[in-house]
Amino acid sequence: MKNKTTPSKVLIIDDEGDLCLLLNILLEGKDVEHVQSIAKAEEYLLQEKPSLIILDNRLPDGFGIDFLSFVKKEHPSIKVIMISGVDAAAEDVALENGADAFLRKPFSKEQLHQTVNELLNREEEVSL
């Protein structure tokens, strides 16, 4: 029985403003926030605990794959979807480092919705 009245919190870590805006629109109904760097993501995670992180690999201050290990160590319950458009080998490394899913850019609205819903539903089932 789901008794959740507040939407799932989603943090987008990506430095492309257009993509963040698009993801925000596609994730309508979710509480979406975004930051543009690993440093800002670390600050955010000190204050908030999102259910899901959508993490780009190439960021201005480092690689999402490296940050992924930190997230999974410090916040093991947060689900992470890694996104990348340039690194073909990033998918294997991301999944090995703890990513719950990987989406290669460009991805479809359906791929995004299916992946987000699978991860968030899995989280709710575990917490019941």
From TrEMBL:
<dbReference type="InterPro" id="IPR001789">
    <property type="entry name" value="Sig_transdc_resp-reg_receiver"/>
</dbReference>
<dbReference type="InterPro" id="IPR011006">
    <property type="entry name" value="CheY-like_superfamily"/>
</dbReference>
<dbReference type="InterPro" id="IPR050595">
    <property type="entry name" value="Bact_response_regulator"/>
</dbReference>
<keyword id="KW-0597">Phosphoprotein</keyword>
<dbReference type="GO" id="GO:0000160">
    <property type="term" value="P:phosphorelay signal transduction system"/>
</dbReference>
<dbReference type="Pfam" id="PF00072">
    <property type="entry name" value="Response_reg"/>
</dbReference>
<protein>
    <submittedName>
        <fullName>Response regulator</fullName>
    </submittedName>
</protein>
<feature type="domain" description="Response regulatory">
    <location>
        <begin position="9"/>
        <end position="120"/>
    </location>
</feature>
<feature type="modified residue" description="4-aspartylphosphate">
    <location>
        <position position="56"/>
    </location>
</feature>
